[in-house]
Amino acid sequence: GKQSFLKMDTLLIAEVISLHFNIRDLITKHYIVKKVSAGNGKVKLRRGVDGSVNWDVWNGTGASTAASPDESVFNLERFQMDNIAVTYIDYKNNSDISIVVRSGMTGGEFTSSNYDLSITGDILVNRFSIDSVNYLDAKPVSLDLNLSVDNEKNL
């Protein structure tokens, strides 16, 4: 089962959040969120020892998110961040990362089994620690990254 910290922890808090919908989908009550923009806030990502995560809120069953006409889907393809503090703690792999995204964007078909993930932006790395070794400490970084993700193989 999931650890209690995964159920109780706040994933995202921000002064400004906007969700982007297609107006036709709103009229037909077929809510599909494709883009989220957030500013001046915090994101807390956690992975438990058992591999459970706190960010899988829109696809909790691991099943496809294909929507019937009456279902809502959080099919996020792009997440724009401005002045967002991000922490990632991975208890399974002993990782602790803390950054501030000054301006950045992540994109991909996150609900798909396989997709290309892109991450771009200007960030300040406060801490990048793996197995108790801190590799970066208070360093500005400009990021332009593309990865192939395979959720079935956890790659």
Q: Could you please describe the fold and organization of this structure?
A:
It contains two helices and seven strands. The protein is mainly beta.
Rounded mean pLDDT score: 82
Task: Write down how many β-strands occur, each being a DSSP E stretch of 2 or more residues.
Answer: 7
Which consecutive residue ranges, at least 5 long each, have pLDDT under 50?
A: 1-6, 60-67
Our estimate of the beta-strand percent is: over 45%
What does the main sheet amount to? 7 strands, mixed
Helical residue percent?
Answer: under 10%
Determine the number of helices (DSSP H or I, runs of at least 4 residues). 2
Along the chain, the helix and strand elements come as HEHEEEEEE
Terminal Cα separation, in Å?
A: 22 Å
In one word, what is the shape? globular
Radius of gyration: 16 Å
Structural class call reads mainly beta
Layout: helices, strands, pairs:
Elements lengths: L3 H5 L3 E9 L2 H5 L7 E13 L30 E13 L4 E13 L6 E17 L2 E4 L2 E12 L5
Parallel strand pairs: 2-3
Antiparallel strand pairs: 1-2, 3-4, 4-5, 5-6, 5-7
